[in-house]
Design goal:
Blueprint lengths: L5 H7 L2 H5 L3 E3 L5 E3 L9 E2 H10 L6 E5 H22 L8 E3 L6 H10 L6 E4 L2 H10 L6 E4 L5 H12 L3 E6 L2 H14 L4 E5 L24 H13 L6 E5 L9 H20 L6 E3 L23 H19 L5 E3 L4 H4 L3 E11 L15 H12 L5 H20 L5 H21 L8 H9 L2 E5 L3 H4 L1 H6 L5 E3 L9 E6 L8 E2 L12 E3 L8 E4 L6 H4 L10 E7 L7 E7 L4 H7 L4 H17 L5 H14 L9
Parallel strand pairs: 4-20, 5-6, 6-7, 7-8, 8-9, 9-10, 10-11, 11-12, 14-16
Antiparallel strand pairs: 1-2, 2-3, 4-13, 13-14, 13-19, 15-19, 16-17, 16-18, 20-21
Helix pairs in contact: 4-5, 4-11, 6-7, 7-8, 10-11, 13-14, 13-15, 14-15, 15-16, 21-22
Bound molecules: pyridoxal-5'-phosphate (PLP).
Length: 632
């Protein structure tokens, strides 16, 4: 009898550690989401998925909880305001959302709407992002910050916004850009608001640390900054210098590094102010982390600080240095992206099969006359805590012997299969004998991994979890239902791409994570797995490897008038086969007509009956309008 409980499930999957007050598990064993934390309703994810399915969506699907997105915008703005009040900081906070972190129109619109009262603005790092920002941004008090390398037309676009009365700040990333900005703005007759990105000496940490330090791609050195100031003076344009910017890299895990970076940047600000440049803003960039693995540590998928500590560190460091240097405190800008959008979306995938190492031979008569198979059976009987390691070594030896005999033609296929079956039975017994052992030898740990099941999931890692594939970033993953029952299998998740990289075999857990995930035995029941905190970067950075396209989406809103507590405002169907083919330069009409020509030839040559030919054509043409993922 299992002593598994819902509380154990919550603890095992570390839900409160990464899910905060947003995610939990209810008495039915289903994962829940509370988009407004304690201030609003709690939804059963299974009900949300069922509703999305009723609206015609298939797996894989992304569920976006729009209220959760709004909650994050409010939380970050309020945290800065609260700390500023506490510290009696004489400036204001003007955050911006970096569009690159999630460019989807519905996401950016929701963020702007939620941030209205805080005059929350946008950051654009490219011309297309700026084109979107200029149209969506309507608040003259909020900022548009333009980062990234710029050409003449990028600068012209920014000035166009300025002409419309928007506060558009062009951040100079390289000294050479300054002359171009001055030239274009003179030509256009608009005085620009400029920011300067500085290259800090403090080196960041984590997967994106290369954004800072001496070898960073962007930013001005102290020498460049002095040159820039001189150029502005020569143009009598000191008042154009409005913002000092730095960015340490995304997902900064360590608050001490953030503290040092803010302190160095504040010193730059103070020195520039003392040179009589009326800089108004210090922009601390992005980097505010998300505790994906819930370890509260400086591991790459975690952070050792809270939102409040982050805000306090920024505000305090800047205030202290301004006081020391006797310069006025600047208004503060931050460009947090990940911390705003990550938690609002959940990727839901469906398991459609499993491969177990220790499969049973169901249709073979298992009378093993062979000595090797019999020896394995004897070994199994001898297995206990004292003999477990020796038994394992002996099993390995027997299998090796069987393989040699098979390759010499001395073992028939059926006996080889029986030896294999018994070998994995011994292997499982050995790992079982190590359960709850404090010290598990390396070879047994490897064995535990190779004994784990592979759960086949209908999705593409390359499309939907690109940071996991490319950078090994961990995301919380767990079954979305059946959690009232003990998950008694350990498995990895494999996707449907034809690529051995297309899998998830690192999961959050103690220390540096674990290679397998605890799952329920798959017996053709519906089994849905959720990947959490995937709202940042994953949506648009994924690629169409194997031509698996963008997945279905449902936008979920809380609504007290609905019996279920929510409604799905919008569903967006994933890309169809014809559409992804168009993305790689096929013309779906041309494809259909080429296929038709082959069918016609086959009919003419009597290889197909006309009715069969028309049937084939219909199937082919219908497939072009179908989703790229599997449909069960
Ligand atoms: N600002 C700049 C200049 C960036 O390059 C980035 C991303 O790396 C961000 C802001 C967003 O960072 P994060 O998502 O860590 O908040």
């Amino acid at each position: 009898m299992s002593d598994w409980t819902i509380e154990k499930a919550v603890e095992h999957y570390r839900v409160p550690r990464w899910g905060g007050d947003y995610f939990s598990i209810n008495g039915k064993g289903n994962v829940t989401v509370s988009p407004l934390r304690a201030k609003g309703a709690t939804l059963d994810m299974v009900q949300v998925i069922e509703a999305a399915k009723q609206r015609g969506l298939h797996f894989p699907m992304v569920l976006r909880f729009q209220d959760l997105l709004r909650d994050r915008v409010v939380a970050i703005n309020e945290a800065f305001q609260q700390v500023m009040r506490e510290q009696k900081y004489p400036g204001i906070y003007r955050g911006v959302f970096p569009i690159k972190v999630n460019q989807l129109c519905e996401v950016v619109e929701e963020i702007l709407e939620a941030g209205k009262t805080f005059h929350y603005g946008l950051e654009a790092g490219s011309k297309p992002e700026l084109v979107a920002a200029l149209a969506l941004h309507r608040d003259p008090e909020s900022l548009i910050i333009c980062n990234g390398y710029k050409d003449e037309s990028f600068i012209r676009l920014a000035l166009l916004g300025k002409k419309l009365g928007k506060q558009v700040i062009i951040v100079i990333e390289k000294l050479e850009e300054l002359a171009l900005v001055l030239k274009v703005s003179e030509k256009f007759g608009v005085k620009p608001q400029l920011g300067f990105r500085i290259k800090l000496q403090v080196k960041g940490a984590g997967k994106w640390a290369a954004s800072s330090g001496d070898d960073a791609k962007f930013g001005l050195t102290a020498r460049d900054l002095v040159e820039a100031c001189e150029i502005l003076k020569q143009h009598q344009a000191e008042d154009m210098f409005q913002l000092l910017h730095f960015h340490m890299g995304s997902q900064m895990p360590d608050i001490q590094i953030i503290r040092r970076a803010v302190s160095e940047a504040a010193r730059y600000y103070a020195k520039v102010r003392q040179l009589n440049f009326p800089v108004k803003f210090v922009d601390v960039g992005g980097g505010l982390g998300i505790d994906y693995d819930g370890t509260r540590s400086t591991s790459e998928s975690s952070m050792n600080y809270t939102l409040e500590e982050y805000c306090r560190t920024v505000v305090q460091q800047i205030a202290e240095i301004c006081e020391e240097e006797k310069v006025p405190c600047p208004d503060l800008v931050s460009e947090s992206g990940r911390a705003v959008v990550s938690p609002h979306s959940v990727l839901v995938v469906e398991v459609f099969g499993v491969s177990e190492k220790k499969g049973r031979l169901k249709n073979v008569k298992k009378i093993a006359k062979d000595k090797l198979a019999q020896n394995l059976e004897v070994l199994l009987k001898q297995l206990n805590r004292r003999t477990r390691r020796e038994v394992w070594h002996e099993a390995l030896r027997i299998r090796e012997q069987a393989e040699t005999m098979f390759s010499l033609g001395l073992l028939d296929l059926e006996t080889k299969a029986i030896v294999e079956e018994r070998f994995w039975t011994v292997a499982e017994g050995v790992t079982e004998a190590y359960r709850n052992s404090r010290v598990v030898p390396e070879e047994i740990r490897e064995l535990q991994f190779s004994l784990s099941d592979q759960y086949w999931c209908n999705f593409s890692v390359f499309q939907s979890l690109v940071d996991h594939w490319a950078l090994g970033q961990l995301f919380p993953v767990m079954p979305l239902h059946h959690l009232e029952k003990e998950p008694d299998r350990w498995g990895t998740l494999v996707d449907i791409t034809c690529d051995s990289d297309g899998k998830v075999s690192r999961f959050i857990g103690k220390n540096k994570g674990q290679q397998t995930l605890r799952l329920h035995r798959f017996q053709n029941q519906s089994y849905w797995i959720g990947f959490f905190l995937v709202g940042a970067y994953q949506d648009v950075m994924g690629d169409i490897h194997n031509l698996f396209g963008r997945v279905n989406e449902a936008h979920v809103f809380l609504d007290g008038d609905e019996e279920s507590g929510f409604y799905i405002e919008e569903t967006i169907e994933g890309r169809k086969i014809g559409q992804v083919l168009q993305d790689v330069q096929y013309d779906k009409h041309e494809l259909a007509s080429e296929f038709k020509e082959q069918v016609t030839t086959a009919i003419r040559e009597d290889r197909l009956k006309p009715s069969e030919g028309m049937n084939l054509l219909e199937i082919y043409e219908k497939e072009l309008e179908e989703p790229t993922y599997l449909k069960f």
